[in-house]
Amino acid sequence: MLVLVGQTTVEPVTVAELRTYLRMESTDSTAEDLLLGSYITASRRLAENITKRALVASTWQVIIDNWASDTAIVDLPRAPLSTSTAAVSITYVQDTTAGTSTTVPSTAYAIDFNSEPGRVYPSFGNEWPTNSVREQPNGVTIQYASGYTTTNLIPEPIKIWIQQRAAGMFENREPLISGITITELPRNFIDGLLDPYVIRTAI
C-alpha cells in the first residue's frame, strides 16, 4: 500500500505562467486566479498518476504486512527519490505482547538511488528482521521523501502538459457541451508529451 503523507504547495506551473498560456492580459481580472490554481493542482496530480512520478517534494509511506523474504528488495514508488539517506526511515511492529514500533537501524539497509523507482534492501551482511514482525496487517512502514527539489528540474514537456490540461479545464468548465463540435488534439501531441517519463511500476 502506498500512502501520501504530505507534499509541498509549490506547483510546477505558476498561476502567472498559466495566465500567459491562456493569453490573458495583465489588466484582466484576477478574480479567477484561485480557480486557475486549482486546475494546475488537479492537472499536476493527474500527470503524477500517469507518470508514476512525484513532481513536487513529497513524503510517502510504503506499508506492507512483512518483507517477502530476509533479503527482499522493496520498491519506493514515485521517483525521483530524495538523495538524502536521512529521508528514508523503516519501522515495524515488534512481535511482542506490547506490539511496540521498532526502527530498523539505517546501517542495516541500503538505498538504490539510481533506479526508477528507487529501492531499499538489506545492506551487506544484514537481513530484514522478518521473524520479529508481529503477524498482522500493515506490520512494516517505510517512509521516504521524493520529488523534484526545484521546479527547474521538472522536464519541460511535463510542464507543458500541465498547462494544456489546466487550460482545457478553464476554457471548458462543463462535462458536456451542447451544439459544439470539439476535436481533441492528437494523442502524440498532448499525452505523448508524458510518454518518455512514465515509470512502469505495480503501484
Please outline the major beta sheet.
5 strands, antiparallel
**Topology order in helix (H) and strand (E) letters:** EHHEEEEEEEH
- Percent of sequence in beta strands: 15-25%
Question: Strand order, biggest sheet?
Answer: 1-2-8-4-5
Number of strands: 8
Radius of gyration: 21 Å
The mean pLDDT is 89
Pairing-aware structural class of the strands and helices?
A: alpha+beta
Shape: elongated
Residue windows where pLDDT falls under 50 for at least 5 positions? none
- Per DSSP, the total helix count is 3
- Note the gap between the termini: 8 Å
Tell me the helix content. Answer: 10-25%
Any descriptors?
203 residues, alpha+beta, five-stranded antiparallel sheet, three-stranded antiparallel sheet, 20% strand
